[in-house]
Amino acid sequence: MSDILILFLAATIRTATPLALAAFGEVVVERAGMINIGLEGAILAGAFGALIGASAGGVALGYAGAVVGGLLVAGLFAVLVIGLRADQIITGTALTLLSLGVTGTLYRVLFGSTGAALSLPTSASLPLPGLSSIPILGPSLFAQPPITYVAYALAPLLGWWVRGTHAGLALRAVGERPESAQVAGVRVHRVRVAAVLFGGALGGLSGGTLVLAQVGTFAEGMSAGRGFIAIAIVVLGRWHPLGVALAALVFGAASALQFALQAMGWELPYQLFLVVPYLLTLAGLAGMAGRVRAPAGLGKAL
Amino acid sequence: MNAQHAATASNIVPAFELSRIDKRFGFVDALQDVSLVVRAGTVHALLGENGAGKTTLMHIAYGMVNADAGTVRVAGSTVRLAAPLDAITAGIGMVHQHFTLVPTMTVAENLALGGRGRLSRGTMDASARSIADRLGFSLDPNIVSGELSVGAQQRAEIAKALSRDATILILDEPTAVLAPGEIDELLRWLRGYVAQGNAAILITHKLREAVTVADDVTVLRRGRVVFAGPVAATSVESLTRAMIGTTATTSPDEPIRPAPVGVTEVVRADHITVTDREGQVRLRDATFRVRAGELVGIAGVEGAGQRELLRALAGRARVSVGSLSRPTRVGFVPEDRHRDAVLLNRSLTENVALEGAGRRRGWMDWGGLRARTSALMQRFDVRAIGPHTAMRDLSGGNQQKLVLARELAFSGGEQHPLLVVENPTRGLDVRATGAIHEYLRHACATGAAVVMYSSDLDELLSLASRVLVVFGGRVHEATNDRESIGRAMLGLPNTT
Amino acid sequence: MIFSGASDATRAPWRDMRHVRRLAPVAVVVGALLAAMAAFVAAGGYSPAAAFAALWSGSVGSWYAFTSATLVRAVPLMLAGGAVAVAFRAGVFNIGAEGQLLVGAAAAAAVALALPMLGPVAIILSLLAGAAAGALWAGVAAILRTRFGVLEVISTIMLNFVALHTVSLLVRGPLQEPTHVYPQTATLVERVQLAHVPGAGRLHIGIFIAIGILLGCGWIFRHTASGFRLLAVGESATAAEIAGQIDVVRTMRQAFVASGALAGLAGAVEVLGVTYALYENISPGYGYTAIAVALLAKLDPWRVLLSALLFAALEAGAGAMQRDAGVPSSVVTIIEAILILVVIGVQALRARESPVISSHDPARAAE
What we know:
B: 496 residues; alpha/beta; 19 strands; 34% helix; disordered N terminus; C: 367 residues; mainly alpha; disordered C terminus
């Protein structure tokens, strides 16, 4: 039984990590008053960047490549949405499509039309001394790849940054009312560009995690909707990093549950579990009506 | 003229100086060769009709708009103002006409916004309190700004400007939203502020205020300086001429005659109560009548309930208690034209079609609508290439004329028996304002009833047959003089 | 809203020379895209000539390719593109055409499988069921938006996933084919399949349904009061409510439901006319491509007919290109993406050129 519990918890964390990373980035983007549907594309570009980086020089370079990939997509988003004031939703949708096309094409061009599975160096799990020997929680939560610990650290760090720094205050003001932030001396465009790039970098890292810490290879369209799920997680987590971390765990647990139940010999259609988090998000959003609001300036150009 | 004045007034370096500013928006010259010199220790009034360029000039002074040409000097040294941050760094603070506090944040957070480094609630509150103490204001740093009264919001705005140690304070129409008593208090405070060696620029279109509080005055007309000099050397009459160009207004400022008792009652409101979308009661137990051929003015400070009153009369808000009888179709000119009255990207024909669109069934008679638009354009002197022109391409005055035209007339050519208008001349130049007033008078003369709210008491008094004052959600009939209306707007008993 | 090109519905488009001038930049864009694609293909070590030849022959190079590849793909793109156009026109960002299409396909398949004996009647019932299911699916998002204030962008994306998993569940459970081997439904009997268009290969009569509906939609937009209300709400919800006294919530719900019905119908037509069975990957992202289709058509149903044709040809050609010239078909995805980006980029630039000139707040015009 405890084996299954360990497996379940480890699988939860494993699924939640890339979701949480991408969602942390999107929290910052949405707090700055934007919604980047192109996050899906950033994750995919990050995954491809990781492939390029890792095949050139190992795991570390892989993560660097992932960040670069995410930044490229985010940079385009920033130019179009902040520079040209193009519509955010459509720009994001188009960038996801672009990323899908570019990574797919480059993959075939660079690695052959067969798209034979490449095996990449992946990061080994790093049991944390002391913590990893806690029964059940140790082997499940603290014997993870290093990137998972980055995600653990980011949640409280971001939470503090948003509340406890002037930069965080400026970010929130930009999302609530950009005109007000501007006349208060905040450089609104700069804050927004920084937020978008941060979101892109984390989205890229999320894609890198898939390749470097989980699958060990790249596949076309491997982001598989994680960007969209991350956006849902941001909403379910009420635009707060700690809430987002919790929401990511809910999604992770739902998909881990199917494996656990299968392991326990239950015969339930796995789609039921996969659907639960989405329904939860929708119910959560509806239930939150009137109590918790999105940043008031969400989706509006300055 | 400007430079001369600066030289004669004092030989010391002025606290703030704008020199030879030019600014164009598209084909419009917003500012041409405008200079402004503000001495330390003085209040400088910047006068001009709506649209004269006052706000644009001050947005340049605050780094919100970049000038095409010209220089800005603070205490003698040239500064480059690419963004508000540059202005703040240079010691310039601004209190905007439309408040800029982030409504969901506390007063303390709003005051802290724009700083650097770490942030703690304790230091944030303490610094907010110390600023408030220094200014002699009472301000609770933990109140969410959106819940403050208008007066308190303005005090918070001033505190915000001064928390960055502004020595030059720009106030853009600060009295527009205040009741007479609050205005006096603000102006007194302003004198104290400049007495400490600071400088202030007061933008206003109210001559009375300028003459009582300012030391110097600059008058803009159509983007040019037409007068600059000490207040002592001028008079209300000469300033009026400078602002308007010709001698005062051409139309006689006779209010429309009250309708005699017995004339058809167009509106009968008996004990009506109106609640807003949040379920808050905004208008309580109001009883009044409006008769054909009269223009009833509505006065009230911002948020007193007049907005809901107008919307209820126009059929745009539901009456929750009481009985309101009014014509089924009412013309309505809302205050925020761009948001509430027009489709900017659409043609004039489509904008005319918007009226009554909620009730229309079946086909759109575009041919008829186009003909109607052309007719309205001609009758109301709307300057545009044709009915297919996009609303966006019209000037503000022409947009408003078309809106008024649409709301005045039924599709059949008859006019609506009731027209409800809300600040109908806000942001319009003198000529367009005159035209709008003319149409309103004409509507009354031909038997329509008009209910008009204006935040400009003078405009109200120059048109209205009688005035209803709204205070705290209650409606009172007021006598037609400035003094008693002003007191009623503040909820004070009438002394006379 | 997103479409700020000032246009006047009251003018007859064919009498207006401006349209000729408007087409010129489109031609330039398409030319530049083709050149960029050639460069891209060449850089990848493929022959641009062979790629273009394959693209051509696979899409419009032969009657068979045109009808059986391009037109067959154009049908769902037309209907789904129309769905997106209707919603976006009213300012409703329905990103959920894909999900609505899937539930539409599922409902149509279920009805057609249950009533094989009814023949043509079953076809009509299936199509209606598909439309109803799509409308219902979109209705959920509509209620979430108008009653609970949930952003439809987020809710429709969520509902896309729910729809996908629901179809996956159905074809492995209640609707699985009798042998329980493959994750799909049984094949529809011929009596409940949409007939082929004589002499046009695999093309089915669904194309007439699509064309008819889009012509009708365009006509409603131009000539009816409800069409005008949709436009007014999309242009400015506040002005529509206050100046037009339009019931904005109702209009938005109508747009949502109509959009969902069209997308659901797209799914139904696809099942009855092309796949003859329901399975998970029944839609290769038609609902997403539809967004590009609608945008390129500037949300005008009549133009959707043309832009759906263009995208269908590109996708049909992409398959041939990969098969015959070895060029990855994903090149076409890039082209589609760039096409959308260029369209919205140009629109954003145009909006900048003509600032709002008003004496009220010149500062805003400057930004």
